[in-house]
Each structure stands twice: as C-alpha cells, then as structure tokens.
Amino acid sequence: MIVLSGRAELGPRALGHRSILAPATDASMKKVLNRIKDREDYRPVAPVCLEHRAPEVFSPGTPDPYMIFDHGTRPGWADKVPAIVHLDGTARLQTVNERQSPLVHRLLTAYERLSGIPLLCNTSANHKGRGFFPDVASAAAWGGVGAIWSDGRLYQPA
How far is the CA of 58 from the CAs of 43, 47, 66, 89, in angstroms? Predict the structure, then answer.
C-alpha cells in the first residue's frame, strides 16, 4: 500500500509521508518491493516500528526516526519478520511515535492488534530515477501497488 500523507519530506530519511508499506512476515516481500521499485534483488528493505516496541524487537532499539543506525534483530524476531532482516542480522530501523507521525503510528498500532507484529516494511514511494509521487493520480498511474491511502481515503486503482 502506498501512503501519501501531507507534504513530502526532504532531507533526513524521515519516511512516512510518502511510503510504500507492506507486511514483513514473508521473506519474499523484500523481492516483491525491490521488483516493483525496479531495484536490485539484494537491496535491503527497512522496517518502520512503533517506538515503544522497538527495544523488544531490536538491539538496542533506541528511538531512531531518521534511520541513522543499524540495529540488531533480537532472537526470535528474525524468523517473524524476515523481509527486513539484513544478511548480518541487522535492520535499518525507523521508529515512530504518535507525536511525530500520527498516521503511521495509528496504522502500526492497528496492524499490531491484528497480527501481533509492531512493524511493517517501509520504502520510499517513488519509482527508480523519479521523485516522490506527489498525488494519488501519479501513484495510481505508476501501478506498482493495489492500494493508496491519502488524506483519509483508501483508493484501489483498477
């Protein structure tokens, strides 16, 4: 699903306003995301995780809203979320809390209630060599995913 929320962000990697979000529970999701973004298969996919749950899943799991550091994946979690775990057992974590990213925080909270997993795969909502999708029409024209969330509405392009 593509999330288009408010303005696109520039500068530090504060994803969440223009993101492609997907379940991390299937190892093949990394390949799917890399294929739809026309990237090499080996490219890693990052997790976005509820800040208060990150220490349970990652080491150290400290707040990291800008994806600055690699975090180790704690025992028992690598098998649960294989799509975001690098070959060395780390992940380039982005944490979110309600204050800094209310929409993504609500989405992750709801997803955790359903699945028990407090994170999703998170990659930028753009296509290779192009900028972020500015609106629903451009994301739909791209056709890489089946659902787009924007300004409180769910779109499912044909």
Answer: 20, 11, 16, 10
Is the separation of the CB atoms in 142 and 54 below 8 Å? no
Cα(first)–Cα(last) distance of the chain, in Å? 14
Q: What is the rounded distance in angstroms from the CA atom of residue 89 to the CA atom of residue 11?
A: 27
* Total number of residues shown for the chain: 158
Please give the structure tokens belonging to residue 27. 């190892």
Q: What is the reported pTM?
A: 0.92
pLDDT of 56 above 90: yes
pLDDT of 131 reads 79
Domains of the chain, start order: 2-155 (3.90.870.20)
Closest alpha carbon to 139 in 152, 147, 13: 147
